[in-house]
Amino acid sequence: MHINRKFVYFGLLDGGQLHRKATWICLQISSFRESKSDERRFYLFTATKTLHLRTNTNKERVAWIHALISTRSLFSLRPLNDNIPLLTRDISVSTERLKERLLEDGIDERLVKDCEQIMLLEFSEIQGQYKVLFEERSNLLDTLRQLEAANIEAEASGINDSEYQLMKQEFSDLSRGKNIEWSTTESPDDVEKQDLEEASDEEETRFFDTNEYFSELTIGCGSLGVDHLDNGARLKNHTNDVNKAEAKNNQFAHRYPQVQRRKRLPDPVEKEKGVSLWSMIKDNIGKDLTRVCLPVYFNEPLSSLEKCFEDFEYSYLLDQAYEHGKAGSSLQRILYVAAFAVSGYASSEGRHCKPFNPLLGETYEADYPDKRVRFFSEKVSHHPTLIACHCEGEGWKFWGDSNLRSKFWGRSIQVDPVGTLTLEFEDGEIFQWNKVTTSIYNLILGNIYCDHHGTMHIQGNRQYSCKLKFKEQSILDRNPHQVHGFVEDVTGKKFATLFGKWDESMYFVNGDGSGKVKDKSDASLLWKKNELPLNLTRYNLTSFAITLNELTPGLKEKLPPTDSRLRPDQRHLENGEYDKANSEKLRLEMRQRMSTKLQENGWKPRWFDRESEKGSFRYVGGYWEARDQGKWDGCPNIFGEISEDLVSSFEGS
């Protein structure tokens, strides 16, 4: 929000950038009222709309209302007149009275001159600051003149391009000041109803408004602290664990050969052609998405095997969990495990394209020595579709298999993961959990968006377990993507409360969180999402995801013929060769349809095996050893041309 002359300007700020969703309000015809149910909310009424505004604190609300009323009163009495100077460019100061006073008290004249020089030096610095203020005022007056020249109406709901560029720089600094949430309605009659809704919202203590209570945490996280009891010992300040983990990773990376990974995808060779989404959906309502052959337009240049490894972008959280457990802090261990479980969803925001469905026997490896992790995955079943993975880090290993049950529901897609994920530390402590439901909405009309909802139970085999609730987003939800949960022991006693957003960050406080958290010193940062890359494409891949399908120098010669990086349709899509990608995808779909027959004839996965008939798939070992030796016996060229004998066998069965 920005006040100048008789107008008040409201704009949304994101990272210091002014968005075009804005409105001008004439103060002379406006009135204000404080909310009865929220000490930080107030309302601004005009002839045609009501603005609902919320500040960070009650003190800020009082200051804003006072500023609005004062500004309205000032310009109602006297318009701005450039002939009445509010500031002058030059100011001066005299030291004569000070010198006379000091000399009367018998102060040595040399000492008096020193004092005079000190005073003049201080004044010179103040004068410099004053001149800067004068220039800023002059710029503001120029801006006001240009706005008035543009004949901006009092009730205009936006600004044109020239005005937008003119004000953009002025608003870029406001993100470091007071941030205000706001929304508009068409009638002031809704205000009392809004107050009632606010009161009911305050009664719900399960979800914190992280934008309200923790908007400054990312700036001042170094000052955060929390005291907590864990087996009788007080926990120390852990808010800088993220920075420590990153520093440790950087230090560790120097011990290994550095791999230069790409920062962006290749420039597309062809111009992409759009596809009618409705024509695809109407014929497949209620069907299993994994059985539907879609053009590559709906795919991103990654396979589901590679997407599994994307969950390990923040693997340093597991390194931290290992270190805390090693130091005897079991509570801190499960807190970081929970943060890791949530962080895997962060990259899904804005990702509306489907990953490639792997072929039966397709594999993917990821060796990231700078992250101290080795990952391997394989498609172990076609019907039902099952992907098994295994990952090893410093002091921990992770494994699991997943079957994604996907359905079209006309306007949305629902994906229900089936399968248990297991994390085991080298001291024998184990945690297991299942992923929550994912839904993609507005496939036909409106803005497509993704949401994760449901309850995640992280079950430990020792003292602590964790329960996380992913709040389902409603149509009018102004604070989506909320996650709230708690850590409890075997008796059901709550020891810590977690909260945050799956696409931003996670925090924790001590105790059961029965009271609202209003002081940032009561919370500790567990995890924060990495910044997105500068060169975003329509796939909205993160910097980490951009590296997953990359063939770094010398890697292709070491890979088995089953690796996802060698899949031709996926590679053509990444390169922007869309016609070739569609052609190859159709060819590989034929091989995919043969997979069921192969399974019926006794096909077995190469690198994984079931623990029991209904158990999870576990890595049997041998992959990295075969890679070192370059021996890929028993690994067929699944992406090659289909032999005539194989086609005849398939058609005749």
TrEMBL record:
SUPFAM superfamilies: Oxysterol-binding protein-like. Gene3D superfamilies: 2.40.160.120, 3.30.70.3490. It comes from Olea europaea subsp. europaea. Residues 130-157 form a coiled coil. It holds the Pfam family Oxysterol_BP. This is PH domain-containing protein. Keywords: Coiled coil, Lipid transport, Lipid-binding, Transport. Residues 178-200 are annotated as: Disordered. Belongs to the OSBP family. InterPro entries: OSBP_sf, Oxysterol-bd, PH_domain. The keyword rRNA-binding does not apply. PROSITE patterns: PH_DOMAIN. May be involved in the transport of sterols.
